From TrEMBL:
Function: Plays an important role in the degradation of dermatan and keratan sulfates.
Keyword tags: Glycosidase, Hydrolase, Lysosome
GO molecular function: beta-glucuronidase activity; carbohydrate binding; signaling receptor binding
Superkingdom field: Eukaryota
Enzyme class: hydrolase
Protein name per UniProt: Beta-glucuronidase
Pfam families: Glyco_hydro_2 (PF00703), Glyco_hydro_2_C (PF02836)
Homology family: Belongs to the glycosyl hydrolase 2 family.
GO biological-process terms attached to the record: carbohydrate metabolic process; glucuronoside catabolic process
Keyword Hydrolase applies: yes
Domain (Glycoside hydrolase family 2 immunoglobulin-like beta-sandwich) ranges: 51-152
Domain Glycoside hydrolase family 2 catalytic residues, every copy: 154-214
Keyword match Transmembrane: no
Length: 214
């Protein structure tokens, strides 16, 4: 440990032999987390076809009640493939569809995504389904991905934070993935407890303290 390494810190040797054994030292660390403590949350390994959906970017807006879902899809493995895109509501009904790597889906009378306590039915999510198909020597191969999508607008003015044109007031707490019993890391039971406490507080937001969550 040195002040110029990661993690930062120093080694302090104790030389008073009346109190400490020979070679005794103390680690002074300048951080409040365990260093090199392993994986803090689950890791998933998965396989893909040779040609597969690599990434999906979605941005949303609203035009007089019509939801606009702009999408861009990135594929890897080949330049020869077809893409089919469908947007489903919570009842599983197809409300819009398109083709190709880039496009815009229009949803008349869209159910907007609202934060908790701002709407009778908050956090409405559509499902964006993307299917890729390509031809190989062994026949057609497909890849499929479904992405939850909330239709909303977000705008920041000099004095307000607006969601769907209405002022939003952040009311919440800092949140750690840390438990006094089972330690630091992702824990389903603790997550349920924390969100129940957030709801009990009437919170509508939380800050992901110090590190990105899954």
């Amino acid at each position: 440990l040195t002040p110029h390494t990661l993690p930062p810190g120093t080694i302090l040797h104790r030389t008073d032999t009346s109190k400490y054994p020979k070679g005794y030292f103390v680690q002074n660390t300048n951080f409040d987390f365990f260093n090199y403590a392993g994986l803090h949350r689950p890791v998933l390994l998965y396989t893909t076809p040779t040609t597969y959906i690599d990434d999906i970017t979605v941005t949303t807006s609203v035009d007089q009640g019509t939801g606009l879902v702009d999408y861009q899809i990135f594929a890897q493995g080949s330049e020869h493939f077809q893409l089919e895109v469908r947007l489903l509501d919570q009842e599983g009904k197809v409300v819009a569809q398109g083709t190709g790597c880039r496009g815009q889906l229009q949803v008349p009378n869209a159910h907007l995504w609202w934060p908790y306590l701002m709407h009778e039915h908050p956090a409405y999510l559509y499902s964006l389904e993307v299917r890729l198909t390509t031809q190989t020597a062994a026949g057609p191969v497909s890849d499929f991905y479904a992405l939850p999508v909330g239709i909303r607008t977000v705008k920041v003015t000099e004095r307000q934070f607006l969601i769907n044109g209405k002022p939003f007031y952040f009311h919440g707490v800092n949140k750690h993935e840390d438990a006094d019993i089972r330690g630091r890391g992702f824990d389903w039971a603790l997550l349920v407890k924390d969100f129940n406490l957030l709801r009990w507080l009437g919170a509508n937001a939380f800050r992901t303290s110090h590190y990105p969550y899954a």
